[in-house]
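Subject line: Sequence and fold of a protein, written as C-alpha cells
Body of memo: The sequence and its C-alpha cells, given next.
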Amino acid sequence: MVQKVVQDDFGDVFRLNAARRNQRISPPFITGDFDGDGKTDLAVLVSVRPEQTSLRSFQTLTITKALGRGVSAAEAKSAQLSLSELAENFRESIVLLIIHDFARTGGKASRFALIDFCNNGDVKMTASRKPLKTAATGDSRKIAAPRLRGDALMFLDNKNAGTAVYWDGGRYLWYPVE
C-alpha cells in the first residue's frame, strides 16, 4: 500500500529505502497526524531515483534540508532544493517524505521531502505527541522545547537520543532529543 501511495503521487521518482552504508532506520514508514489537522499523514523513507527526475515537477512538494528552531526566513529559503538538485546532490541519502492527508479526504495534499533529518547508525522512527524536553543544540546553550501542533517524528538511537522532526505551522523543523 505505501509503495502504491508513493508511486501514485510521484511516479518512479522515489523508491522505498530505509538503509544506506552507515545508517539504518526502522520501520520504513509510519502514520500519524504530523501537522495537527486531525487527518492521517504518512511519513515514509525513500531514495531519489535520479534517472527518473528529468522534466518532472510536483507543485505541492517542498524539498528542504531539515532546519533547526529559530532559523531566519533567508536561511529557510536557501535550504530549499529543486527536484534536480535533490537528485544530483543527495542521490545516496535517505529522504523523509511526508504526505499530509494521504487518504485524500480533503483534496490535494501538501507533501514535504526532508534531508539531513537524523543521525547515522541504527535509528528507530516513531510518532509521539508527548511534549519535548528542553535540550541543547550542539555546543549551544539549552533552548526551550517547541510546543507540538501534531505528532512529532522521533528518530532515536538505542540510548533514546536523536532528533524530533515537528510541524511549526508552516514547515518541518528538527529539535534535539537527549
The CA atoms of residues 131 and 148 lie 7 Å apart.
